[in-house]
């Protein structure tokens, strides 16, 4: 995990964390446990929602802003291509997870685990690429009015998800990640939104990983 320079790496840390959690949960799944399968289904729905939102926001808001800041068109094109590959891997993993939830057998848990491993390869390769080549541009650009406008647009893009998003980011986050989150969003705002509007995450999803 690179040093946190923007909010983007905070979000990436949560994706990496959840991938590991799902892989561990499927590798140790107690065969035919309906209760555990249902828990994982709710957590998986949140993971896919956060991933879709993140990449949609990048394509519609952040990538255009960074292109205007001097990011090479070839880099943006390559990252968008990686998004397409990630969507394909996610769709395949999603189908395997649906089959596992419908029939939580040991064999279906193993198949879902394999699908998650393939998704990890594609997604982490993309996250690494973004952090290596795009983060320096984003960090250099972060104090400009255009970047602040992009951040504001993202905060308005999914208002119904904001509390869940903040609660999800904090679940199991290390001290460095928490420090960066609070430097980007005032600590009282993080606390109130994650406690009040993040109740669904805290009640229905966080216990999956307790």
TrEMBL record:
Residues making up the signal peptide according to the UniProt record: none
Hemerythrin-like domain span: 12-137
Highest taxon above the source species: Bacteria
CDD domains documented for this protein: Hr-like (cd12108)
Name this protein carries in UniProt: Hemerythrin-like domain-containing protein
Originating species: Nocardioides agri
Lineage: Bacteria, Bacillati, Actinomycetota, Actinomycetes, Propionibacteriales
């Amino acid at each position: 995990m690179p040093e946190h320079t923007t909010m983007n790496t905070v979000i990436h840390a949560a994706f990496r964390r959840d991938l590991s959690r799902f892989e561990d949960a499927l590798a140790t799944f107690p065969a035919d446990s309906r209760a555990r399968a249902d828990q994982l289904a709710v957590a998986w729905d949140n993971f896919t929602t956060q991933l879709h939102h993140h990449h949609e926001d990048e394509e519609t808001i952040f990538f255009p802003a960074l292109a205007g800041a001097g990011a090479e068109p070839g880099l943006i094109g390559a990252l968008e291509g990686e998004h397409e590959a990630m969507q394909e891997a996610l769709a395949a993993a999603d189908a395997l997870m649906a089959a596992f939830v419908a029939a939580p057998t040991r064999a279906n848990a193993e198949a879902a685990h394999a699908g998650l491993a393939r998704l990890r390869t594609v997604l982490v390769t993309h996250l690494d690429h973004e952090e290596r080549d795009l983060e320096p541009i984003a960090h250099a650009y972060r104090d400009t009015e255009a970047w602040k406008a992009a951040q504001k647009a993202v905060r308005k893009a999914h208002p119904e998800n904001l509390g869940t998003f903040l609660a999800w980011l904090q679940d199991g986050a290390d001290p460095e990640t928490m420090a960066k989150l609070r430097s980007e969003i005032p600590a009282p705002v993080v606390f109130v939104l994650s406690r009040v509007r993040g109740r669904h995450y805290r009640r229905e999803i966080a216990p999956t990983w307790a």
